[in-house]
């Protein structure tokens, strides 16, 4: 199914790309046809042998450092993607950020869709480590955005305060945030804002460009907890994704404030569906509906999302490949969070806890952000169902502990087969 | 980020208008000069090592600046940047360096005997004296653009050259990544240690990549001569000591620099220099001499005088806090140094500092006694 799709869409996409105002025709190497991706564009300057350029990773603890041997470095250092992105650029963030003894970061990014192929010798083992054994060379990733398959999914609001699902999407043919030029980034903004303006009914909304926002609009977005700011984390800034800030960055949201799109932050788009309370089913329904609508609207103009059957949806950070999906709740678990078995229970449910400020924050009181651990190798429906089943289990545990009853650690699932 | 030239060629499929940065809210030298027409004219050019216009201006695009402080907003990636992008950099240089024209020549004078006086600044007021400059090694890319291999080669050359210094310049190199905790603490206590830059002005140019690889500090055993390797430039050379004997500081500065230069030449390397721009460094603000000669001086009365700023301007001096650039003064103690870098020789600039600081201390003494300083007002230098 996917390959017929790709062929039909490539033709349309050509029309879309030629419609870009600008001189000349597109280099043919740019059309995405997996069989013809040129991995051998030579990068233009190197006077030293690979051994003199190999980074010092002895104090590093990230996935890139674990897998970048001098041999792999030497094999890939002369290659570049068609848009000119090199290995050194992929790994710069991992070289500059040695990592933390307890938290293993990914340590590399893609500059464009082709990065994952041109530098596959490094990306593949990193993906395998990060995604629990998923092997892009032999496995296929299932995509499923049919929300009608979800069972249950309305939580007890005495415990679950809010529900949220997010993912990202990249526009095929335009480089990703670490590599894009200003014109490409502006083109992403134009394509996405144009598509979003076609949304209707409960998805009807408005785009706020970061550069043109009024003070009043800015304050409102801050109060709604929608505004994103220029990244300060060196993990992100070292990859080059914050260049030219705030040019072509913006936030779109629907009037009801339940569907939100970030444009040109860490990815081309980040798509978020959320509401207060425990109706995860409805949040996911809106998520799927919105995503499909946006996809339909960009296809009308000859564009498509970056997707393939090995890696699913292609995003900047390898940690977000596949579904790019994080479905989570803010949940209050005063008893369970004090139980020494809490972490093990979460592990076995394939869930992860964070503070309510998001990644890298600590929990306040006993309220946690609980979400799926996995991104790749399982479909959207599977992951959301995992979160739903898991959160139901956690609420059950909490209720039992309240009554002085004992709880059980659920069985551990196997690795991806 | 050092993008390859393939990347620059790819941008050509978009029009200049589509790629031209939005500089409407910017206040830096680059933004003042870079019109859309100039951008269109220069966008397809690249230096032999692959540095492009967007590389030059990235820091200025990412850092719009401050309404009161005019930053430069562009950097060089190699020596050729100043030639290939002269249509942008010449006007920036002219604006930044007091009207210095593309046809002007710059005098280099590192003969300390040419300095008059400077050994008698009152140590009750002048707490310390310091002269710094930078040097780049010809043939290697500068910090915004260099590869790891190049940066390591610069470090190797620096360590080799500095290792040959003797007499009161004999010293030791401390690589940032190999430093022991004890060495690190000592360097901090001596106020010698430099850390990974946090200023977005520097980070946006790409000069902090691969930190702390190939970065280090060399200093002599007497702790009066110090070289930073691969921080904002290939080399930053600093001569300093407590008290007001600027002449001795400048003597050591010139002797050390001249020795280092000849040691490099013995190995077949020279510094980037030409008779128009003098010594070539990463930031256009440091061209010419790259020299900042300064003192930490107590001026609690004078600094409160309404004409303090005007006096400094007339003397061609600038004030900073004692933490260095972008810091505020603490307890009436200021860092006073030359405002100029290009168009005056090293001797001329240090002379201005010596003569100027002498006058400032005199004024301070008068104000302490409640006397007027009107008759001491200097003419514009």
TrEMBL record, chain A:
Per the UniProt record, which EC number(s) apply here?
2.7.3.2
Enumerate the SUPFAM superfamilies for this protein: Glutamine synthetase/guanido kinase, Guanido kinase N-terminal domain
Instruction: Please report the stretch or stretches of sequence annotated as the Phosphagen kinase N-terminal domain.
Output: 45-132
What's the main place this protein lives? mitochondrion
Q: Family, per the entry?
A: Belongs to the ATP:guanido phosphotransferase family.
Q: Which GO terms describe its molecular function?
A: kinase activity
Q: Which UniProt keywords apply?
A: ATP-binding, Kinase, Membrane, Mitochondrion, Mitochondrion inner membrane, Nucleotide-binding, Transferase, Transit peptide
- Functional description taken from the UniProt entry: Reversibly catalyzes the transfer of phosphate between ATP and various phosphogens (e.g. creatine phosphate). Creatine kinase isoenzymes play a central role in energy transduction in tissues with large, fluctuating energy demands, such as skeletal muscle, heart, brain and spermatozoa.
Name the positions where ATP binds: 162-166, 225, 270, 326-330, 354-359
What is the official name of this protein in its record?
Creatine kinase U-type, mitochondrial
InterPro entries the record matches: ATP-guanido_PTrfase, ATP-guanido_PTrfase_AS, ATP-guanido_PTrfase_cat, ATP-guanido_PTrfase_N, ATP-guanido_PTrfase_N_sf, Gln_synth/guanido_kin_cat_dom
Membrane topology classification: Peripheral membrane protein
Describe its partners and assembly state: Exists as an octamer composed of four MTCK homodimers.
TrEMBL record, chain B:
Which reactions does this protein catalyse? creatine + ATP = N-phosphocreatine + ADP + H(+)
Domain Phosphagen kinase N-terminal: from-to ranges: 11-98
Span list, region Disordered? 96-122
- CDD domains from the UniProt entry: creatine_kinase_like (cd00716)
UniProt feature, compositional bias: Basic and acidic residues: 96-119
A single GO molecular-function term is: kinase activity
Nucleotide-binding: is it a keyword of this entry? yes
Keywords, A to Z?
ATP-binding, Kinase, Nucleotide-binding, Transferase
Ligand binding (ATP): 128-132, 191, 236, 292-296, 320-325
- Where does the Phosphagen kinase C-terminal domain lie? 125-367
EC assignment: the record states: 2.7.3.2
Report the top EC class in one word: transferase
Hydrolase as a keyword of this entry, yes or no, is no
From what superkingdom does this record's organism come?
Answer: Eukaryota
Q: What does the similarity note say? A: Belongs to the ATP:guanido phosphotransferase family.
Protein name in UniProt: creatine kinase
Which gene does this sequence derive from?
A: Ckb_1
